[in-house]
């Protein structure tokens, strides 16, 4: 394929970034245009004025948008511009549904054999309904490229963790690094005071912190340690009524929780434990308790004679590992190794893989296909529901 025709569904910060977030798919496309011939053919948003203003802003600084048009109807855009691939960056409630005219973006793209890069979470619908979306995608055949934005799967720290685990596993006569993991510890504390979008604080619109935010940690746990034994899941959550710094919505300038029904208000702390099918254990805690702007996140993996950890995986990842057992090299034995991976850009890597898959009609390199992402979505849904019922 000589030129990759790309369209955006959603003209907000998911696709086009902002100073407050590390992701910006449009900017990554700009960088990747040095390796691929990319033509942006359209931007669609339910707010057509926003689509138009976003298009004009990018036409003023990028050659990729020269022939692009703005649309208020994404289906019309698909019909008129015939993109090879779309980047779907819309609120969780606006996609991932099999119901015609009610968030069926993925279904409409699949029926037109258009490749999709879909931001998480993949839906707010019941996982069984999302399974119907998967059925429609599968009908398009195994050549259709569908990638879900779990960027940690493409991160340099993930590659290094797998390298360490697989190296140790080989020494121990095992076929996979997943077999030697005994425990996974996930810690995620969000700076709630900086989350100034009322939608995020309403479970009915965002899915809540576990489905919308912590999904990245559940997903990377599955990717590194294998499938979860779902019946073993236990989860608890609490709501904190005494938070000191609940923000104002950036549009209304009123409390982000004003008007949110009591049953739709988020829980501020959730703890879950489960077993993987390998027998390893996982301990997971997500909170929205930090004030200020800086989050604190960490991933740890324990096994016989080793510990691996990643701190600040979103912004400035630092990987640390220590091998104390007989499998350690002379340089490693009992000494913590520290690798700064802060120059890595997994957002670029996932889009690079997506564009390559479109260009070659080969989805095999996609690390987070839709069926796999549905497994993560189902697990986050279950954590939220189980915690809420306790």
Largest sheet: 8 strands, mixed
What is the end-to-end distance? 53 Å
**Cα shape:** globular
In N-to-C order, the SSE pattern is EHHEHEHEHEHEHEHHHEEEEEEEHH
By DSSP (H or I, 4+ residues per run), the number of helices equals 12
Strand content: 15-25%
Fraction of residues in H or I helices: 25-40%
Describe this structure in words.
By secondary structure, this protein is α/β, with parallel strands linked by helices. 32% of the residues lie in helices and 23% in strands. The protein is built from twelve helices and 14 strands. The protein has helices spanning 13-16, 25-32, 48-59, 74-81, 105-111, 127-139, 156-171, 203-206, 208-212, 215-225, 346-360, 370-389; strands at 4-9, 38-44, 69-71, 85-88, 115-118, 146-148, 181-191, 228-238, 269-276, 281-290, 296-303, 306-311, 318-323, 337-340. The longest helix is centred in the C-terminal third of the chain and has 20 residues, at 370-389. The radius of gyration is 21 Å and the shape is globular. The mean pLDDT is 96.
Q: Which features would summarize this protein structure in a list?
A:
390 residues; eight-stranded mixed sheet; alpha/beta; six-stranded parallel sheet
List the helices and strands and how they pair.
Elements lengths: L3 E6 L3 H4 L8 H8 L5 E7 L3 H12 L9 E3 L2 H8 L3 E4 L16 H7 L3 E4 L8 H13 L6 E3 L7 H16 L9 E11 L11 H4 L1 H5 L2 H11 L2 E11 L30 E8 L4 E10 L5 E8 L2 E6 L6 E6 L13 E4 L5 H15 L9 H20 L1
Parallel strand pairs: 1-2, 1-4, 2-3, 4-5, 5-6, 7-10
Antiparallel strand pairs: 7-11, 8-9, 9-10, 11-12, 12-13, 13-14
Helix pairs in contact: 2-11, 5-6, 6-12, 10-12
């Amino acid at each position: 394929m000589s030129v990759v025709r790309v369209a955006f569904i959603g003209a907000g910060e998911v696709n086009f970034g902002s100073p407050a977030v590390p992701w910006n798919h449009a900017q990554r496309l700009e960088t990747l245009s040095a390796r691929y011939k990319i033509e942006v053919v359209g931007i669609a948003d339910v707010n057509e004025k926003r689509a138009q203003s976003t298009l004009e802003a990018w036409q003023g600084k990028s050659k990729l948008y020269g022939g692009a048009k703005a649309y208020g109807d994404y289906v019309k855009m698909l019909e008129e511009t015939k993109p090879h691939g779309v980047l779907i960056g819309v609120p969780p409630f606006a996609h991932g549904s099999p119901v015609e005219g009610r968030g069926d973006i993925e279904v409409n793209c699949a029926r037109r054999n258009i490749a999709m890069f879909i931001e998480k979470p993949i839906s707010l619908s019941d996982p069984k309904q999302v399974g119907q979306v998967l059925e429609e995608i599968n009908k398009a055949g195994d050549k259709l490229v569908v990638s879900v934005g779990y960027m940690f799967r493409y991160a340099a720290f993930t590659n290094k963790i797998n390298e360490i685990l697989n190296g140790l596993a080989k020494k121990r006569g095992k076929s996979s690094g997943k077999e030697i993991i005994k425990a996974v510890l996930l810690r995620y504390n969000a700076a709630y005071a900086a989350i100034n979008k009322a939608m995020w604080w309403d479970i009915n619109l965002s899915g809540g912190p576990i489905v919308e935010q912590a999904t990245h940690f559940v997903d990377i746990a599955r990717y590194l340690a294998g499938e979860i034994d779902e019946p073993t899941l236990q989860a608890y959550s609490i709501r904190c009524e005494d938070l000191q710094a609940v923000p104002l919505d950036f549009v209304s300038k009123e409390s982000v929780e004003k008007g949110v029904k009591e049953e739709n208000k988020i829980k501020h702390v959730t703890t879950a434990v489960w077993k993987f099918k390998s027998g390893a254990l996982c301990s997971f805690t997500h909170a929205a308790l930090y004030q200020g702007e800086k989050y604190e996140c960490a991933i740890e993996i324990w096994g016989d004679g080793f510990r691996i950890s990643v701190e600040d995986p979103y912004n400035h990842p630092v990987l640390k590992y220590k091998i104390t057992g007989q499998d350690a090299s002379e340089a490693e034995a009992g000494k913590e190794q520290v690798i700064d991976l802060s120059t890595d850009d997994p957002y670029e890597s996932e889009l690079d893989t997506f564009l390559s898959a479109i260009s070659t009609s080969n989805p095999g390199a996609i690390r987070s296909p839709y069926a796999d992402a549905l497994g993560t979505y189902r697990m986050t849904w279950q954590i939220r529901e189980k915690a809420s019922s306790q």
